UniProtKB/TrEMBL annotation:
Gene Ontology terms describing biological process: peptidoglycan catabolic process
Protein's name in the database: MurNAc-LAA domain-containing protein
Record keywords: Hydrolase
One term under GO cellular component: outer membrane-bounded periplasmic space
Name of a matching Pfam family: Amidase_3
Origin species: Paenibacillus swuensis
GO molecular function, one term: N-acetylmuramoyl-L-alanine amidase activity
Record domain MurNAc-LAA: where: 102-202
Length: 225
């Protein structure tokens, strides 16, 4: 199930969709996120999100992608009256997590840092379920980058604080680092990152959800070997 530009603009009653995973593709439209030359974070986020959706679909795991093109979710906000495009965008993402009944929310972003900053960082809510999800994703992504990072507790992140389900923000790498940039933009690199995200999601659902998904089937031990 994809939420497209047209359907996301329509008012919806609570819990119109039941799924396992909401994939949040960060930024979009006039909000390009961080950048390097012609490379824009919003494009990388969308590419990774679409590929993750496709991989989960192959696993028969229900997922919803909240952005399928280059547009701002703030354009569709019906819940918050404000002139701030940024706040309207975040409010729209939050409300989608309320009207879509899901198990988890994974928000994809790209980082920027000082000289030498590299690797993935997974931010989690201050609750155990979010931490366990972040731990699985961080472990799998560390293997891609050769890092030993631990997930970080987030404080002032609107989406994490307001999400109706266990949620994490995944900074998939640093646009400012040459090696990270290669992983984030190359076909091979994106495949490795998406595989890590897929395995992290499946591991969490299998370990902490008894392997059951909403359609009543059970995964045949999706844990990576």
């Amino acid at each position: 199930m994809w939420i497209n530009k047209e359907s996301s603009a329509q008012a919806a009653p609570p819990h119109v969709v039941t799924t396992e995973v909401i994939i949040d593709a960060g930024h979009g439209g006039v909000d390009g996120g961080t950048s390097y030359g012609n490379l824009l974070e919003k494009d990388i986020n969308l590419q990774l999100a679409q590929k993750l959706y496709e991989q989960l679909h192959k696993r028969r795991l229900p997922a919803v992608l909240n952005r399928t093109g280059d547009y701002a979710l703030s354009d569709h906000n019906q819940w918050l009256r404000t002139r701030s495009r940024h706040r309207k965008d975040l409010a729209q993402r939050k409300e989608l997590s309320h009207v879509i009944s899901s198990r988890i929310l994974v928000s994809l972003h790209v980082n920027w840092g000082g000289r030498g900053a590299t690797g993935p960082i997974v931010l989690y809510q201050r609750n155990m379920e979010s931490f366990l999800l972040a731990q699985q994703l961080q472990t799998k992504l560390n293997r891609v980058y050769g890092t030993l990072y631990r997930p970080k507790a987030a404080r002032q992140y609107y989406l994490l604080n307001q999400s109706a389900v266990p949620a994490v923000i995944v900074e998939t790498g640093f646009m400012s680092h040459p090696r990270d940039r290669e992983l984030l933009t190359s076909r091979k690199g994106q495949s490795r990152i998406v595989k890590a995200l897929e395995n992290g999601v499946l591991s969490y659902l299998y370990l902490h959800g008894n392997g059951e998904v909403n359609h009543g089937e059970k995964h045949k031990n999706p844990l990576p070997k």
